[in-house]
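Model: Ready when you are.
Researcher: Fold this.
Model:
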Amino acid sequence: MATITSSGIGSGLDIESLVTQLMTAERTVPEKLITAKETSAQTKLSAYGQITSALNAFKSSMATLNNASLFTSMKTTVSDSTVMTATASGTPKAGSYSVEVLQMAQGQRVVSNATTAPTVAAGTLTFNFGTYETTGTGDDAVTTFNGTSSQTITLPEGKTSLSDLRDAINSAGIGVTASIVNNGKIDQLVIASTAEGATSGFTMSGTDGLAGFSYDASTGGTSTLSTLDAAQDAKLKVGGIEISRTSNVIDDAIEGLTLNLLDSKPGTTLRVSVSNDREAAKTAISDMVTKYNEAMTLLQNLTSYTPAESDDEEAVSGTLVGDGTTRNLMRALRSTMSEGISGLGKILGMSLDDDGKASLGIAIGSDGMITMDTGKLDTALANSSADLSSFLTGTSGFASRMQTTLNGYLDSTTGVLTARTASLDSQIDDLADQRTKLEARMEVLEARYRAQFTAMDSTLSSLNTSSSYITQLMNSLSSSN
C-alpha cells in the first residue's frame, strides 16, 4: 500500500528523512543476516548439485563397466567385405576361417510379357508354394514342382488393370508381392516371393479373367509370364566343405559367427579373421578412471583451504570447507576405490610404493587421484580378461560395490546428498518466510514512526500557535501602557 509522506508542516521537521533513516537502521542488520544465510545456503546447494552431477557421471561409468561381455567380445574382419561380412553373434574362437560364396539365396520372381500387356479381368489366382526339383542332366533333365501349401486371391468385377491385380496381391499378404515396372513401352507386372531359398518357389493358376496368369516354371512359362529369378538356396564352402542354406544370413556355419552374404564369387576364397576385441573394456575402465578423478577433483576443490601467505592476502576457502557430509563422501569413495585398486593391482601384477603411489599399472595416489599405465592394462586385457571380468562385474563385483556406495549418497529417497539438498531447500524456504515477515514488521514499524512524528508535528504546531498568540497579546499589552 502506498504511503503518503510529507515534511512537518507545523514543526518544520524533515519527517520523511527521519523515518527513512530510522527504517534503514531497523532493517539493515536483520536483512543482512537473512541475505547472508540465503547466499550461503544457495552456494552450498549449488555445490551439492555439482557433486551430484559428478557422482551420477561416475556411477554411469561404473554401470557401463559392470558388463561381462566387455571382456569376452570378439571382432571380425573379412578379406572382401563386398562379398560377405561377418559379426560375432556368440563367443567364437579366435582364429581364421576360409569361406567361398558359390551362389546367393534368392526367392522366385516372374514377370509379365515385355511387349504385350496381359488381359486383366475378374477372376481368381491361386499360388501354390513349394520346391522345384530337377533330376537328370542335359536332355534327360526333368523338372517337377512339389507343392506344400496354396493361397488364392480374388479380383472382383470392375477391376481390369495391372495396378488392380498388383494391389489385390499385395493386400492379401500371402507370401508374394507384386510391383509394376515400365520398360519404356508398356507396364510389366513383377511377382516375387517374400522368402529366400529353394522352398520359396511357386506356381500360379488363374481362372476367368486371370486365366492368362497361369504359370509353372517346370513347363517353361507362358506367353504372358516368364522367370526372372529361380528360387534357390545359398551355397558356400566353409573350410572346403560345401553347405547350403535357405537364407543369405547364416548363423550356424561357424560357431559364434553370423555370415551375411552380399554377393557370389565362385573361385575366390575369403578369409574371415576372428580376434579378441578389448577396446570397449579398455574404454570403460579408462572412462571410470576419468570420472572418478573428476569427482575427486571437484570434492577437493570444494573442501580446500588456502591460508593467506601475507598480510596483504586473504585466505581462500572452498564452498564446503569443513563440511562433514563431503568429507565422509570422500572417505567412502576412496575406501571403496582403494579396495578395487588393490584387487586390480593383483590382476595387473603391479606394485605400489610405500606412500601408495603407483609404480606400475593402475593405482590410487596419496592425493586421491587414480593413475593408470595403459600398456599394463592392455597386457592384462589380453592375458587376464576373464580374471578382470570376474573381479569387476556381477552382483558382487567391484563395479556393483562402488554403485552401492554411490547409491548411499544419490538415492532419491534415502541418499545422504538427497537429504542434505532437501534440508538446504527447506532452509531457503524458511529464510524466504523470514524475509516476508521482516517486510511486514517493517511496514508496521514505519507506519508507527510516521504516526508518532505526525502527532509530534501536530503538537508542535499547536504550541507554535499558542506561542504566537501569547506573543501578540504581550505586545498588545505593552503598547497599551
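Researcher: Now this one.
Model:
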Amino acid sequence: MDTVPVLTEARLGRWLVWPIVKERLWLLCRNQWHEDRRSSTLSASVDRLYYGLHQVMRALTGVGRCTTAVLYKPRLVQVPTAEAIDPFLGDLQSLKQNGPILYYAFGVETGRQSTVERMDLDFFGVGAVMAVLARFVRKSAKVKRLAKQVLPPIEKAIPEVPAAILEAVIVDELARFECRRVFTRLLLRRRDCRHLIVLDPDGKTPEVAAARELEIPVIEVQHGMFCNQEPEYSWTSVHREIASSMPVPDSVVVFGRLWKQQLLDAGYWRDGEVMEAENAVISSYRQLMKERAPKSPDAPMTVFYPTQQYVRSAALDFWGTFLEGLRRRNTHDVRLRIKLHPDERLHADAYRALFDTYPDLCTLVPEGNDAFEEMMNADIVAGYSSLAMMEALGLGLPVVSLRGGPAAQGFVGIFGMPELSSVFFETEDADALAERLSGPSGLAFLDEWGQTSRDNAYLAYSAGVEPIEALLQRITRHD
C-alpha cells in the first residue's frame, strides 16, 4: 500500500498523511480492529488531565535552553560492569557533556506521584491534554476531507474492518497529530533545542515533524527488534523522492550491520544516514562472558526460553512435547528454564502446569531474575521472534528458532533475514529437538552451533565501532 498514488499525495499541511496514520491502522488490524483503550475511573481521568495541564504549562512557560531533547521510554538495566544504564542509549549522563537535556518520557503510566528518574516531561499527562484538544480538531472540515480521500485504498486493503471505524481512526489520528505537532514545535522553539534523539519514532511522528519544521536534526536510536517489512521501516526509494513530506528521522543509529542492511535494502535510507554503534548492554555482558569460568562438564544442558504472548498456545504445545520426549528417553541432562514476559504474568498458570508435570526437567524463572543473567547461564536460547534471540547471538550462544502457530515462518521468514538461515537452528519438531539434545548428540549440537554463533556474533551487534554514548555525544555537539 505504501506506493498507492493517493497515499503518496494526500498531505496535512506539509506532511504526508499515510506515515501519520499507518502505525495506528496496523495496530488496529493486529488487535482484530479493537483498540487497546484501558478504562479508568472519572477521578483518575480528571487527575491525569490535571497532571497533564500542569505538565504543558510548565513546559511552555519554563525558562532555560536545552541542547538536546530525548524522547524515550525510561528504563534502566543493571549491568555488571557499570551503573544502571538505558538499554539503548547507554549512560544518559554522558549526553549532558554537550549541555542541558530535556527528557520527554513516553510509554509509562506515571502521574503526579511519579518516581521515574530523568523525566522533565511526561506524555502520560501531556497526551491526555492533547486528546481533549483533538476532540475539537476532529470537527475540522480539512481533517474529515483528508480522511475520506485516503479511505478507499485502505478500506480495500483491509475489508475486514468496517469503513466507519477506519475513517474514525484516521480522523482521530490526524487530529492528535496536529495538536501534538503544534505543542512540540512551541516547546522546542522555547527551549532553543538543537537536536532531537528519539526511540520508537513511528509513535512520535508529530514530535518528529515539529523538529524537522524547525530544521532540528532528528536522530533515531534503535529500540529493539525490527525489519524493513514493518510499518515504520518499509519506506522505499519512492518515498525518498518526497522526503521533505515524510515525518521520519533524518538519521538512524543501529547496533549491527544486519540492521543497517535492512534499512538500506528498503530504499529510503542512504548509507551515510544509517550509523552503527556499539550497544552498551551487549558490550558489558560480552566482557563478563570472557571473564567467567567455563561451565562444569557435569552440569546439565540449560535451554532458556523467554515467552511471547502471541505464540503462547504453540509454545505450550511445543515445550510439552519436548519435555515428554526427554522423559521418554530418560534424559536427565537437559533443563528448560522459562522466563515469563511481563504481558504473560496473568497466564502464568499455563506455564506452571509444565513445571508441575515435569518438575525435574522444567523451571519457571523467578520474576526478578535478569534475562541477561539467565542467558549467561544458559547453553541454548530458544524463541519464535524474540529480540532475546538476537541478543543471545550477540553473546555467541547457540539459538534455536522455533516455527509454529502464528510464527509458522520462523524468525528468518518473519523478519526477512536470510543471513540467519544458517546461523539459527530452525525447527518445528519438538520431539526431534529432544532427540537432538539428548546424550552425546547434545554435546555435539553445542559444539557445532556454539561455534556457528561465535563466528557470527557480530552480525547483529557490532564490536570495534563507536560506543553509543560517544556517537551521540559527537553528533549532538554544537560548535
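Researcher: Key takeaway?
Model: The chain has a mean pLDDT of 92.
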